[in-house]
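Deviations from the work plan: none for this task. Representative record:
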Amino acid sequence: MPSYTAPTKDMQFVLHDVLKASQAQVPGYDELDESFTAAVLEEAGKLASDVLFPLNAVGDTEGCHFENGVVRTPKGFKEAFELVKEGGWTALDCDPEYGGQGLPYLMAIAISEILASSNMAFNMYQGLTHGAYSAIHAHGSDEQKAKYLPNMVSCQWTGTMNLTEPHCGTDLGLMRTKAVPQADGSYKITGQKIFISAGDHDLSENVIHLVLAKIPGGPDGIKGVSLFIVPKFMVNEDGSLGDRNGVSVGKIEEKMGIHGNATCVMNYDEATGYLLGEAHKGMRAMFTMMNEARLGVGLQGYSQAELAYQNALAYAKDRLQGRDVTGVKNPEGPADPLIVHPDIRRNLMDQKSFVEGARAFTLWGAHLIDQAHLNDDKAADGLVSLLTPVIKGFLTDKGFEMAIQAQQIYGGHGYIEEWGMSQYARDARITMIYEGANGVQALDLVGRKLAQDGGKHVMAFFSLVTDFIKETKGRSETFDAQFREPLKAASKDLQAAGMFFMQNGMKNPNAALSGSYDFMHMFGHVCLGLMWAKMAVAAEDALKNGASDAAFYETKLKTGAYYMARQLPATKTHLARIESGADPVMSLDADQF
Amino acid sequence: MKVLVPVKRVIDYNVKVRVKADGSGVDLANVKMSMNPFDEIAVEEAIRLKEAGKADEIVVVSIGVKQAQETLRTALAMGADRAILVVAADDVHTDIEPLAVAKILKAVIDAEAPGLVIAGKQAIDNDMNATGQMLAALTGWSQATFASEVGIDGDHAVVTREVDGGLQTIKVKLPAIITADLRLNEPRYASLPNIMKAKKKPLDEKTAADYGVDVTPRLTVVKTSEPPVRQAGIKVGSVDELVAKLKEAGAL
């Protein structure tokens, strides 16, 4: 039977030993002392293990049902959703003015990992609501905020994001859904939206759709897109629910994974909508929460790797197959456990070193978002926009890859549904696709983020790494050999790739874009290398200060050394590919394929 | 009425327990620790009494190492009003024996004057099942152990007990000591707002010496060992062979 236990100890390590959260000069961080964050993480972990995780397989096998125009979620989802609501978990980082708990985003992300690992499909109902909450909070009028936010903070009403249409996904300029202005200031929205996660369901009394549409007569293409609030049930002046709006579910999709989440085709038929923010500035409104949304998807990617790793590890310790080549380890048994074999170790170390690095990277990203929002720190904002496509693209690619590796540990049993590994791989797969497919993330990184503000942010990243390398000079011989030197080499590769783009990208954009995917992965490796080096510093310091839990910190150092030795050198391959330019990629005519 | 609930920090029920190499006990260093599940049920019952208007204050007490304050915070987050931590050991491996615990609790009762004590029937680490009973003896109060249902009726408590033959309902005079069994209730999950509030609830720290109790162990642990590993079985060809094997093994 698969199981899940929240990695609270590792989260505490990142929050306190690495990020030193309670000392950071960010409003609200002084609340985050160790015992408080431990209590919050433990309680969320309890809910995740006892309630949400048992429903993960239920959601996968049962899926959602669409009958007589009504979407029904899997058995047990409704009760579990009530528990999550009652626990106040939906409101963690929301504005206290609308009933939120007002904790930093950093804490929300730590809790999100726990909820996503235990049941990703389930957690999306709340996740999408949070996204819609953020959009209304950032762009809504006071009246709109007062009308919608309190019920969205509590998840009494859930939210959705409607971007994709049958003929337009990444290229939203092709959008056809139209919004016709009415005399009373509202709009009539007509069109079809597809792939709408949590589009409709039986978990809440109302669904607040955020819909991108074009106001006739506005600018062409992407510049003419506006954002609208379209409630499933109209909301009366007194806050009570009124008539059903002209929005309905066409069908729900049969998907590869996340079966517990209803992915809907939504039909808007002269539905009443209200402009959110300014007309024709819909994309800008969407972009203000893009960093958060993409960081959230990067998190989903590694959350599935974490879940898969926990189970693969238990299996590797339990399953007896073959003997240790260096000598029998389990003389009483008919064979030794899988974990004695070097290739199984290699596989487990890949997973462990990735997941722990990814966790630190994501929490650091969340910390930067807090600095940007709460301290109005422009540098942090620039840095996190640069890192966002890396978090999204790299962590989801690797998250899926690691879920597949975890499945491999099980041999044939990994392919059998009962063991859970198939679901984790299938669920992880979507994270590479939605919220901007990973190829688009690479394009965003190389085509937009590198040069943003005159390349200021990427330069800031490089100085951050260089400064760290300088500061840690002479720490210890092992740190130098195992962490500092490999980080230095990888960072040099990344700079060389950036240089190649600068020299070649202007005259031949294909030279840069042919290497964009490699660059994204290379960047990801350097970020995880940086995280591991930082974690190594924290672990060494803790050991020096006589930490009671020496074994934990020693394990950290060894896991980090593995990443630096076995994963980070991938930057060399990526650099070679990038420097080969556009020719190998583009030399065939389309007809020659 | 004030309700006192003693809670113990024990090895988490999900943790696979490992015996220390020298056999002196189980390894507790860096192992996940949680509130004893029976104590969680006791805290829940106290909160329900308060919600039903039968109690007005819930005081939780833990006796042991300093880290037990995390356990107390959990109880506060569930809904207890304040906490008392009695530090009686430095090493997480030191277990305070039931008699010493009962004596400290008696001293706490003298200071706090609760109308009711609800304790877990036993802690899942050593399974002593003794503290509640000893406390009743020391205080001279009535006791109702292994409760699966608790009602307050004026100056009496009506308690349904899980006994070998089924259920037994007794009426005891308050103040009393009740010990909670597994089926008394299902403890709630602490909500995020309550975890935040728990930070600000009072937690007093005392020592065993403050109450004049000597916690020196009176029992000696002779040996701690893992349960024997289950041996592989054999298939028998007939009933006769089965009977013969059972006789051989001395089972018949």
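The CA atoms of residues 298 and 392 of chain A lie 4 Å apart.
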